[in-house]
Amino acid sequence: MIEIIIIVILISALLTFYRVIKGPTLFDRIAAADSIGIMFLLVLVLLSIYFQRQIFIDVAIVYALLLFVDVLIMAKFFGR
Amino acid sequence: MINSISILREIIAYVFLITGTYFLISNAIGMIRFPDFYLRLHASSKCLIAGSISVLMGCIVLEGISYISLKLIIIIIFLLITNPVAIHAIAHFAYNYSIKPQKIVKNDIKQ
């Protein structure tokens, strides 16, 4: 059951990747990359539940922190 | 008795997980189908935070009380704080980059 949910979240990340490739403006690409990052964070947590490995959740915490800093710096650098 | 309690816990967890995946799919369809940048940002912020918190709540119910659920609660609080801040920053810098919404009737920000 968890495998099906992981596959559905990956399909949804693949649909969001369309907006990264064909965004009219640059901020569309930044927002879509933020969505894809949070979806992969959820996939990481579900893989940790599926394989019974506790170390993946620590990786997920650091990944969420780096994603926030990443989006802020990209928006401030490319914007005005 | 213990078996029925564990079955009930799995049912509640899978209800949370399926609700979260529904919100994530609606996020992806909204990112593809909406015509404007600000509408896409609207779909991205609300559906993404609802879906991620629902999936993490399902993982907490599936796991029980342990260190793993404490770390998952930390991730939920962190996402609740940081995701609106990031979306607001993107919208602020995009407005200053002179990306205006389509079919705008009255602009309240412009003096």
UniProtKB/TrEMBL annotation, chain A:
UniProt keyword Cell membrane present: yes
For this protein, the record's InterPro entries field holds: MrpF/PhaF-like
Q: Which UniProt keywords apply?
A: Cell membrane, Membrane, Transmembrane, Transmembrane helix, Transport
Could you tell me where this protein is found in the cell?
Cell membrane
Q: Which GO terms describe its cellular component?
A: plasma membrane
Its membrane topology, per UniProt?
Multi-pass membrane protein
Q: Which residues cross the membrane?
A: 29-49, 56-78
User: In terms of domain of life, where is this protein from?
Assistant: Bacteria
GO molecular function terms here?
A: sodium:proton antiporter activity
Q: Does the keyword Transmembrane apply?
A: yes
Q: Which family does it belong to?
A: Belongs to the CPA3 antiporters (TC 2.A.63) subunit F family.
Can you name this protein? Multicomponent Na+:H+ antiporter subunit F
TrEMBL record, chain B:
| Chief localization | membrane
Where does the chain cross the membrane?
A: 12-35, 47-67, 73-95
* Compartment(s) of residence: Membrane
Reading the lineage from the top rank, the first entry is Bacteria
Topology within the bilayer: Multi-pass membrane protein
Keyword Metal-binding among UniProt keywords: no
Keyword Transmembrane included in the entry's annotation: yes
GO molecular function annotation: sodium:proton antiporter activity
Matching Pfam families: PhaG_MnhG_YufB
Q: What is the similarity comment for this entry?
A: Belongs to the CPA3 antiporters (TC 2.A.63) subunit G family.
Name assigned to this protein = Multisubunit sodium/proton antiporter, MrpG subunit
